[in-house]
Automatic annotation (TrEMBL):
Single Gene Ontology MF annotation: dTDP-glucose 4,6-dehydratase activity
Keyword Membrane among record annotations: no
Catalytic activity: dTDP-alpha-D-glucose = dTDP-4-dehydro-6-deoxy-alpha-D-glucose + H2O
PANTHER family: DTDP-D-GLUCOSE 4,6-DEHYDRATASE-RELATED
NAD(P)-binding domain segment(s): 5-307
This protein's name: dTDP-glucose 4,6-dehydratase
UniProt cross-references to Gene3D superfamilies, sorted A to Z: NAD(P)-binding Rossmann-like Domain, UDP-galactose 4-epimerase, domain 1
Organism superkingdom: Bacteria
Cofactor: NAD(+)
Organism of this sequence: Nocardioides eburneus
EC main group: lyase
Family: Belongs to the NAD(P)-dependent epimerase/dehydratase family. dTDP-glucose dehydratase subfamily.
NCBIfam families named among the record's database cross-references: dTDP_gluc_dehyt
SUPFAM superfamilies given in the database record: NAD(P)-binding Rossmann-fold domains (SSF51735)
Amino acid sequence: MNRILVTGGAGFIGSNFVHHVVRHTDAHVTVLDKLTYAATRESLAGLPEDRVELVVGDIADASVVDPLVDRLDPATDAVVHYAAESHNDNSLSDPAPFVQTNIVGTFTLLEAARRTGVRFHHVSTDEVYGDLDLDDPKRFTEDTAYNPSSPYSASKAGSDHLVRAWVRSFGVRATISNCSNNYGPWQHIEKFIPRQITEVIDGRRPRVYGDGLNVRDWIHTEDHSSAVWTILEKGRIGQTYLIGADGERSNLDVVRAILRHFGRSEDDLEFVTDRAGHDRRYAIESGKLRTELGWEPTYQDFEAGLADTIAWYQAHEDWWRPAKAATEAAYAAKGQ
Ligand code: NAD
Ligand code: TDX
């Protein structure tokens, strides 16, 4: 790969991928990002200017997207598509930007890939498969039927279906990855783990939705980035790969691990109003990615990865503090 256009490269996971590409390859990166509330401009600071360029713009605007994709060489270059509205709770309050960015934005990029023949990788989520019961022995695989629950996951499912149709009907050279829940540095404090870490730093009690028994399958964002790069290099066109690191934990277990880390009582938490339509459990079977493409996660110890993440939020209060009061006020208004 010579040149990569990374959409959403100023967000939590996209910015980690930009660092990964700069560290491990010689490729030049153009980031296309609208810089919404979720963008993390600081995360791109200090990257070499001759390797990384930031273009501020909307993926749903063809007049922005087309010239950037036209610069790419179909023989050597690629689009890696991370940009999205990403928070389930926000999609319940206002679904409109989710349809616009996640569906219309993906459509706009696919049309540019169709016109130019450029390789396209679409970053998606395990939430497109709906949820599993707590005692279900099955995990999600590439063959699991789509069954999204929230406006967010429905909009991501819609975007996946567009990619599949553009591959089959127009021969677009695309791959798709569906990853489980990410954690790590630069994640917005509206999300579960950074919200609870920063609540405890502030001397407040973590806020657990419902009964707290919902299970998420956690993966460190570094491992997500290495998996996407592996698929970009070795993945078969038209294929979907599930990305996961065998990190199933109940929300209560995660909150208790955070409380333990800070030396607080494991029961020093608060149960709050549940999320509407709250998915019970996600679990990924990532055998295809591991066997076919030889990928393995490096963060095998969740507690160690969590400790690193806590240390990072303790050291970067200047970054998250400005968003904290407004984020908590919005949750408080919903009883969460
Ligand atoms: P994020 O919300 O932290 O970042 C999203 C980025 O996209 C932001 O920088 C934002 O400014 C940008 N963006 C939003 N709308 C845009 C638009 N119209 N045009 C251009 N840029 C726009 O999200 P994230 O958690 O980093 O997720 C990135 C991708 O990974 C998403 O596609 C998400 O569905 C997927 N994903 C996330 C997780 C997770 O656990 N967070 C898991 C699996 C898949
Ligand atoms: O304060 C909270 N208390 C709580 O119990 C918050 C913010 C969340 N939760 C619960 C809801 C979920 O069961 O924690 C779990 C994780 O919540 P989120 O961080 O909002 O993640 P989730 O809804 O699982 O979706 C995430 O993973 C899949 C990302 O936000 C998506 O972008 C990704 O596709």
